[in-house]
Structures are given as C-alpha cells and as structure tokens.
Amino acid sequence: MTSILEISAGQYSEKGIKESNEDACGIHIPKDSLLTSKGIAIVIADGVSSAEAGREASETCVTGFLSDYFSTSEAWTVKTSGQKVLGALNRWLYGRGQTCYGSGQGMLTTLSAIVIKSATAHLFHVGDTRIYRLREGEFKCLTRDHQTWASSEKAFLSRAMGADHTVEIDYRSVPVELGDVFILTTDGVHEYVNDQALVELYQANHSNLDRATRNIVTRALENGSHDNVTCQIVRVESLPLQNEEEFYKQLTELPFPPPLETGQILDGYKIMRELHASNRTQVYLALDTESDEKVIIKTPSVNFEDDPQYIDGFLQEEWAGRRINNLHVLKVIEPKRRRRFLYYVTEHIEGQTLEQWISDHPKADIKVVRPLVKQLVAGIRAFRRQEMIHQDLKPGNIMIDHQGTVKIIDFGSTKIAGIQEVSSPIQRGELLGTYDYAAPEYFEGYPGTHQSDIYSLGVIVYEMLTGALPYGGPLSQRKLKKAKYVSARQHNSEIPPWIDGALEKATHINPKQRYDLMSEFVVDLSKPNPTLIKSSQPLLEKNPLGFWRFIAISSLLLNLVLLYFVATG
C-alpha cells in the first residue's frame, strides 16, 4: 500500500429526451492534508421532475456538499460531517421551497454520496439514486431505493431532500479494497440498463472511465429511457496505510475458517500438516501454490467465534506483525490474494523454540547465552520503536532458527499505543501473558510498561542460566508480598555475583527499581557492575583468598586457645 489515497474517475450526464437536465453530479479530490483528514467525495443527485425547481435542488445539493463537507471540522467523523451538511442543505431546500413556491414540493431531489477516507467508504443516501460496488467480479447494490408502490407499475418517492424540515438519511460504511469500483447512477440509467450490462460496459471501457460512463448513458437512452441520465464511476487505485481501527473493522467481517485438513487448499495455500493446536489457535504448515514457498498459517479457534475480545487480540497480532520489519521478529506476510476467512500468514522458520533450547542446554554458560540475549533485545526494541509493549515474552514465543537467529514469533498480547487511543466497546488491559514470565504489576491491575517487558526478559535469561524461576515459581497477587528473589547462584554456582545482581535488578518486583533501558541490562550481563554486588555478599564469594586466610587464622587461634587450656589444666 502507498501512503496516499488515489482514485480514477469518470462521469457523464445527459438530458435525454427532456428539455432540461435536472440531474447533477460532482467529484472533489483535495490536494492537501484534507485528503487524509477528510478523504474524497463523490455525489450524484436527481432533481424530482414533479418539483418546481428540481434542477436547482440537485445542483445545490451537489455543489453544497462538495464545498461544505470539506469545510467542517477535521475532528468530526465522516458520518457527523456528512449528516450535518446534508441536514443543513435539506433545511435550506425546504425553507426556500416554502418561501419561493409556497409548498414543500418546490425544491426536491434525490441524492447519493460516497466519501472515501483512508480505507473506508462512507455512504449517504436519500431517494432512488443508486451506488453499486464491483469487487473481483461481484456486483452489488449498496443502497436501497426509497419508494412506495401505488401499483405493480407505478412507484412514488417516499423520501427526498427538501420534502420536509428534517430528512432521514441512510448511512453505512464499508471497507475499501484496492481495485474496488463504485458506480453511481440515476434512475434514468439503472431502470433501463441491467446489472450485467453495467458491468460489461464498464469492463469494455475500464481504461477510460469517462468513455465508460458515456457508453452506459447512451445504452440507457437506446433502451428507451425517457428521463435524464447520469452515471459516475470511481475506481480505487491505491490505498493509504490503514489505521488500527479500520484494519480491525475490515477483518471482523471475515468468518472463522473451518478446521483444515492435509491437502486442503485455502485461498491458494495448500495445507501440508498441522503443527500445533490449542483451544485458542491452530497453526499449519502450508505451501503457497503460486510461489512454491513454505509458509505458516495461523487460524483462530471457533471456540471464540463470538468473543470480541479474543478477535481483537487475534487481529492485533497480525497488525503488530505487519508493522514491524526486523530480522529478530517473525515476518507477517502481506496477503497476495483476497481472504475469504479470518487467518494470517507468516514466514516459515526451521528451528526450535527457546523453550526446547533451554531443555537441551540446562544451566547454559553465560558466554553462550549473551549473543542470544542481544538478538532477543534487538527484537524487543523493534516493538518499542513502534510504541508497542509485547506483554507475553516467554521461551515458547521465541524461535532460534538453524542459523542461530533469534526471532520473536507471537504478538497476541501486544499493546499498541495507537490502538489504545481508539475508543472501543471491547475492554482491554486484561493480562494475556503467561504467569511464569508476566511482570508483577499486571497482577495488581496496573497497565504494562517497557519495564514489564524488561522483567519478562530478565526471567527468561535467569531460566536460561539456571533452569529455574527467580521467585521459585509463578507469581500471583496473593504471593507478591511474600515474594523473595532466589539467588541464581543457588542453582548454578558458576554464575558470577555481578551477573546475579543484574538478574535481580531486571526482575525486581517494583518496576521503578528495574532497568530503564534494556541496553543497560545487556551491558551488565557483559561486564561487572560493582553497584550490583551486594555488600552483604558472603566473603567466600566476594574474596575467596581472604576467606580461606581468615579460616586459617581462626583455626590457628582456636588451636592455640585449646593448647593453653590443656597445658594449664
């Protein structure tokens, strides 16, 4: 995707057999920051022929909307802006009709409008003009005609701009995909050109949209249309980067996939075998039939099909992965084809989890652990640069490939700063991580911070060096007050005291007492930091030579005392 919203457009309007053209249409594409904050507007209107000033009404609505919408506050939503503008235009039409023509039938028009902002199309509709969408061969009408049928052959408008001092406006928003085509028509067109013909005329002239609209209008007149005829076509050529809210909205429209079997093909991916299954997700090894590359497909469990909080986490997982481009973070692959179900695709890593590595390398040497930790820190930093907190760092979520490259592979609990600013009916903040590695502040209801990930990192390093956990087991809110750090040297006497001090600081119960930066932790794992060696440290550990000298002198003095008592006894 590019960072700019771009469209191709064409439009054509003809009076037909009537004396004047009471249709109106227009498109406005701003060239400044309004393109991002307000989007692109497309409007079509059909002045009611029975009204005394239908032409003025339609032209007023088109020019008024295209002008006034872009003058509304950039802080307003598209829905609020559009409805306020259309409400004001309706009141003006109604008032002018009453003043100039003595009735509410003076200035009437139908109207359909699209505002494409970012990756969402916002539709506004009153009357019997129409908005169609063509997407990958599927042609669909997105509006509903507001008509009342007097007989099997005669229908009257049940809703129009200017008919009353208030108007009910149909509004809906739909996700936009690259290549989407929107076709807007007045009833003089769609009552005489069927859906199949509309699609065929567009496809035959897709390289010239002005010609396509002209040919559609001509076809309507050839088929006997006795009304004004107007058509607009808009094709989405590029989309800006989606924000989290729009990404979430788009993917929630996809259904959960069914259980996948070996040999089954899902959107061009051939399932090779199931790698992992839990009550939350399924992970499959698959083959991209186009590129012949092995990939991983992760699908949500149908157990949570009606759980918005679960879906929110699953969607954030892909969103986070697609925003991060780092050697030490699993690469989430941009979809090449349209997805029919909710899942996502990642690179395939051949190797083992850090959990398996710890089992294979019990109480590993610090010289072996250091380079792995540095790579892990590089991956965690990639999250921080995107204002993310991973929140579920653990050995099972870390892979080491056959070349020794460390990669973080799971983002299901990641907190994204930007998405936290978006109001949501879904309650966020619940601890999603694993208790063994989760920072203590989560148990007390506090939000995670960068120091929370440092805690998890410290626990992981502790386990790599000792095979144990720094507080003897998983913590909980009940255990926090009694929790006491267990020296890593109790599990592995080869660990230097200064390394133990670094581990204790990284895993401190109080986040304020932990490292501010992961780089400081890495440095303290590489060279001694005198401030981390406790003054109460046993003399044997602090000064072995002095310890044995003290023992020798003490033994000599004790022997002399014993000899004295024996001699004087």
Q: What order do the helices and strands come in, and which of them pair?
A:
Elements: E1 6-14, E2 23-28, H1 34-37, E3 40-47, H2 54-68, H3 78-101, E4 109-117, E5 120-126, E6 130-135, E7 138-141, E8 147-149, E9 155-157, E10 170-175, E11 181-185, H4 187-190, H5 195-204, H6 209-222, E12 229-238, H7 244-251, E13 265-266, E14 269-277, E15 281-288, E16 294-300, H8 308-323, E17 344-347, E18 351-353, H9 354-360, H10 366-385, E19 388-389, E20 398-401, E21 406-408, E22 415-416, H11 417-420, H12 440-443, H13 450-466, H14 497-506, H15 518-526, H16 539-542, H17 544-568
Antiparallel strand pairs: 1-12, 2-3, 3-4, 4-5, 5-10, 6-7, 6-11, 8-9, 11-12, 13-14, 14-15, 15-16, 16-17, 18-20, 19-22, 20-21
Helix pairs in contact: 2-3, 5-6, 7-8, 10-13, 10-15, 13-14, 14-15
Describe this structure in words.
It is built from 17 helices and 22 strands. With 569 residues, it is of the alpha+beta class. The protein has helices spanning 34-37, 54-68, 78-101, 187-190, 195-204, 209-222, 244-251, 308-323, 354-360, 366-385, 417-420, 440-443, 450-466, 497-506, 518-526, 539-542, 544-568, and strands spanning 6-14, 23-28, 40-47, 109-117, 120-126, 130-135, 138-141, 147-149, 155-157, 170-175, 181-185, 229-238, 265-266, 269-277, 281-288, 294-300, 344-347, 351-353, 388-389, 398-401, 406-408, 415-416. It folds into 4 domains: 6-241, PPM-type phosphatase domain (Phosphatase 2c, domain 1), CATH 3.60.40; 252-347, Phosphorylase Kinase, domain 1 (2-Layer Sandwich); 351-418 and 428-537, Transferase(Phosphotransferase), domain 1; 545-569. It is elongated and about 140 Å long. The strands form 6 sheets. The protein has a 5-stranded antiparallel beta sheet with strand order 1-12-11-6-7. A 5-stranded antiparallel beta sheet has the order 2-3-4-5-10. A 5-stranded antiparallel beta sheet has the order 13-14-15-16-17. Residues 421-425 have low confidence and may be disordered. Strand 15 and strand 16 form a beta hairpin.
